[in-house]
Amino acid sequence: MGKTLFDKVWDAHVVDSVKNGPQVLYIDKHLIHEVTSPQAFQELEERNIPVARPDQIIATADHNTPTINQHLPIQDTLSRKQLQQLTQNCQKNKITLYGLGHKYNGIVHVIAPELGITQPGMTMVCGDSHTSTHGAFGTIAFGIGTSQVAQVFASQCLLIQKPKKMRVTVNGKLRKNVLPKDVILYIISKLGTNAGTGYFCEYAGNVFEEMSMEGRMTVCNMSIEMGARGGIIAPDKTTFNYLRGRKFAPKGDDFDKKVTYWKTLRTDADAVFDIEYTFDASDIEPMITYGTNPGMGIKISESIPEINDATFEKSLAYMGFHKGELLLEKEINYVFIGSCTNARIEDFRVAATYVRGKQKAANVTAWLVPGSQQVAQQIAKEGLQEIFETAGFQLRQPGCSACLAMNDDKIPQGEYCVSTSNRNFEGRQGQGAKTILASPLVAAATAIAGKIVTISEEIEEPQFA
Amino acid sequence: MEKLTTILSTAIPLPTENVDTDQIIPARFLKATDKQGFGDNLFRDWRFDKEGNINKNFVLNDSRFSGNILIAGNNFGCGSSREHAAWALADYGFKVIISSFFADIFKGNALNNGLLPIQVPEKYLNQLLAKVTEKPSTELAVNLEQQTLKTPVGEIPFEIDPYKKTCLLNGYDDIDFLISKKEKIEAFETVRLSQ
Ligand code: SF4
Q1: Tell me: the pLDDT tens digits for A100-154?
Q2: ipTM value of the model?
Q3: Structural domains of chain A, with CATH
Q4: Which end of chain B is more exposed for a tag (fewer CB within 10 A), N or C?
């Protein structure tokens, strides 16, 4: 029997197996950030264990960083302390840190791909559930808890059960204005938030084959929102072209040699998945969510389903919505374009293409938070900054920002926010804030209209760069 | 890690489904650099309103219910990988969580902190929730060695990874195990790097 892409990468990293138990999986790259690493460093220190492979760890500061005045000392004492702790831990253990203000700083899942750290066939972990993002490169990448961060520090390995395998295939032609974010929101709305639990999900079909790397990252990023540990897409020409010339990508002959290997990383025709789902691309439309988990999504033109269930009703009550209600024309005062789901250059290009020549609605506060310093630079270089600022959007400095609202970027109590991030949980963007997940295009259109609208004009391929 | 073998306790019912780790411990409480004290902010925004007043309707504030077992709705612990959620539950005093389904990362985090997630069939869960809600003094008995949960709605077996079971029973953790594999790991690296 053939092997899946996931099997090929996984099996190549198994160091040992416990009888009837987990396997010892070797980890190629370990990404860390300020929030989930301090207790792991502490654990090692208390037990007098050194960090095994500091050169395979990359650190960044992102979750808890301010998005304005990053050159000034951080106001919040606890946040400042947490960042200082990260700096000290990295120095002490000789770990590369792209801290606040560094030209490579940014959200962990944005910087590793753009620096070429993420490569096909690798295993990668990070104390953050959206580590699934890196699967876009044909990488096994998944989020871990802090105890596991400590395990990887101590041994460069993880003790883990091999997940089951799932495949989601989407074939056909996507309709106009349907972005990768809509594709994944659609899939999650169909499968629900725990369909993927216990599985690693491969995305296949021409829709993903034709997607850019940025789009594939958006899709894999949200795998965790259907419960899957990670997503994975077979590397191809798009992947190789994206990687070529990036800072940490192999160079010259080494690159070509790697490509030869990377090309073998595909699911064999006779490989078997534990479960398979298939969708038709033409059924997907621009999506929005109406509830408090990412599975509660509908096509923007649809009304909220009528489901009789206490949890469902509790969720609608929190959101202030009713069964059968249409979200179109709903007034919205906050728009957030950012997060590791949709804060790459392509996302800002799409938004700018729509925004160009228009003005944001007076009632709207629109925050644009680039995923990294490099994305921020590119926004300036390509003239997007001017378009956004002329239209009245607020361009801030890179970080996780209102995606989890750990810093000051909080949506006020009771306000709706159309957000390009990945979670619409109660209070995720601030206490009492109500999040509506959408693509960068829907978010941009909401900011212009001041309410949820369908987009009638067709957005051509963005013409920037 | 503390050893866990048997537990006899009353339980707290939380029938809500899809309880995510942002509810268990909101992000604004993740700024600490150690593991202590997270229990104070467990379910913070359900326990207290924005002004910090106690929400009398939330089950943790209902004096009829107590104990170190939490019975939760389907798909408990979804969302963020924050281990702070497991720390908060353990710090508050919970030792066992019963649900019909647990999110992957949460389950692992719980086990790594001596907190036992017990998965039971949906029907059993609903009966148990109803029973405990009706009679808060209902006692539940967990036996990890035997892998059984005994309650007035019946005695049922539960699954646990045999390796994880050994860890919980003895208070071991994965770091000890992995360090004992050092030679194998180094041999693996040598081969891998030469490829
Ligand atoms: S942007 Fe949001 S989802 Fe992504 S790493 Fe930051 S907090 Fe997590």
Answers
A1: 999 999 999 999 999 999 999 999 999 999 999 999 999 999 999 999 999 999 9
A2: 0.90
A3: 8-275 (3.30.499.10), 288-449 (3.30.499.10)
A4: C
Q: Is B103 in contact with A197 (Cβ distance < 8 A)?
A: yes
Single-letter amino acid code for the residue at B176: D
Facing residue for B80 by CB, picked from A129, A147, A150: A129
Q: What is the 3-state secondary structure (H, E, C) of B105-163?
A: HHHHHHHCCCCEEEECCHHHHHHHHHHHHHCCCCCEEEECCCCEEEECCEEEECCCCHH
Number of neighbouring beta carbons within 10 Å of residue A72: 8
Tell me, yes or no, if the pTM score tops 0.90.
yes
Tokens standing for B140? Answer: 């539940």
| DSSP strand pairing (A23-26 vs A157-160) | antiparallel
Bridge partners of A308? none
Atom of ligand 1 nearest to the CA of B80: 8
Is the pLDDT score of A461 beyond 70? Answer: no
Which residue reads 């009245």 in tokens? A392
Determine if ligand 1 sits within 6 Å of the CB of residue A369. no
Reference A462, options A365, A387, A393, A396; nearest CA is A387
**Partner-chain contact B109 A147, CB within 8 Å:** yes
CB of A128 sitting under 6 A from ligand 1: yes
Residue owning the nearest CA to atom 2 of ligand 1: A403
Per-residue pLDDT band at B173 (split at 50, 70, 90) = confident
Helices of type H across A21-116: 38-46, 77-93, 108-114
Distance CA A427, CA A243 (A): 37
Q: What is the pLDDT of residue A457?
A: 79
